[in-house]
Design brief:
about 300 residues, alpha+beta, 7-stranded mixed beta sheet, 9 helices, globular, binds cytidine-5'-monophosphate
């Protein structure tokens, strides 16, 4: 079997409503996921044992890495995966702790890559179940594109792709901890929002591109923790962004622009005012993780 490559895209949340606290400690959310073409690259080839090496970011390559957790979960649940090995190499580009779902996308990439490499023949719904055990954002990346996420964020309803847009990402030199941001969500949770009107609102938003509805309930918490995030959002709005918003629980703030905008030169203009930040120019994409042959 030849080596395979998983192109693992990042995501932004075009909207995120927190509709309630659950007894399991998680929050019930309604979110609109959008994949973007900033990718981590995972390569894998069959080997006698399972191993992982990571390049491009200070991410541990031990069992705490979601890639190895995903591989271990496959070995636990899929009889055909038992005793199989793979040499995995992960090239990180997506910032860690940035609310862009990088680790989650890597986990989804691992499930899809090893499913193919090891000939497991698990179908999408079996993979989605395993993905949800690995993390709230993982199932989205199996299909990607534009999708509504409900429950913990793990119930995914794919939506028609939005017209392609240019995206400017600003990642500050610090990450934010997702549990910490959720814990600090002191605002009363709006039970009235938990009914079906919320998903309907988001579907309308996705189909009609009514970006005025784009809000993130975690934004006020994150901006309270780090005011420079709000400053960056203001800068994006002044640059003409259709939407400028915190992604997920942060710390990345993104701007969405019409496809014809030159966000690369916008990034160059903004860099001086935000020392230490990483600014990325990328685009929305209609795909999720893609498995391709690894060519040398
Ligand atoms: O599922 P994941 O491991 O990504 O979640 C990390 C943490 O984020 C959870 O332990 C929880 O504190 C918080 N979270 C939440 N509600 C969600 C998703 C995540 O409270 N829907």
């Amino acid at each position: 079997m030849t080596a395979l490559r998983a192109l693992c895209p990042a995501k932004v949340n075009l909207g995120l409503h927190v509709v309630g606290r659950r007894v399991d400690g998680y929050h019930e959310i309604v979110t609109l996921f959008q994949a973007i073409d900033l990718c981590d690259v995972l390569e894998g080839e069959a080997a006698g044992a399972l191993s992982l090496s990571v390049r491009g970011a200070a991410v541990p390559a031990d069992e705490s890495n979601l890639v190895l957790k995903a591989a271990a979960l496959l070995q636990e649940r899929a009889a055909r995966a038992r005793g199989r090995g793979a040499r995995l190499t992960l090239e990180k580009t997506i910032p860690v702790g940035g609310g862009l779902g990088g680790g989650s996308s890597d986990a989804a990439g691992t499930l899809l890559l090893l499913n193919q490499l090891w000939g497991l023949q698990l179908d999408v719904s079996a993979l989605a179940q395993l993905a949800a055990e690995l993390g709230s954002d993982v199932p989205f990346f199996l299909t990607g594109g534009t999708a509504l996420g409900t429950g913990r964020g793990t119930t995914i309803a794919p939506l028609p792709p939005i017209p392609e847009r240019a995206v400017l990402l600003g990642s500050p030199p610090f990450g934010l901890s997702t549990p910490e941001v959720y814990r600090a969500l002191a605002a009363p949770l709006t039970a009235a929002m938990a009914d079906v009107t919320v998903p309907r609102l988001f579907v309308k938003f996705a189909e009609g591109n009514d970006f005025a509805l784009a809000t993130n309930d975690l934004e006020a918490v994150a901006f309270g923790l780090r005011s420079e995030l709000a400053t960056f959002k203001d800068a994006l709005q002044r640059s003409g962004a259709e939407v400028a918003l915190l992604s997920g629980s942060g710390s990345t703030v993104f701007g969405l622009f019409g496809a014809g905008n030159d966000v690369t030169s916008m990034a160059t203009d903004l860099r001086g005012a935000f020392p230490g930040w990483t600014l990325w120019a990328c685009r929305t994409t209609a795909s999720g993780v893609r498995i391709v042959p690894a060519v040398e």
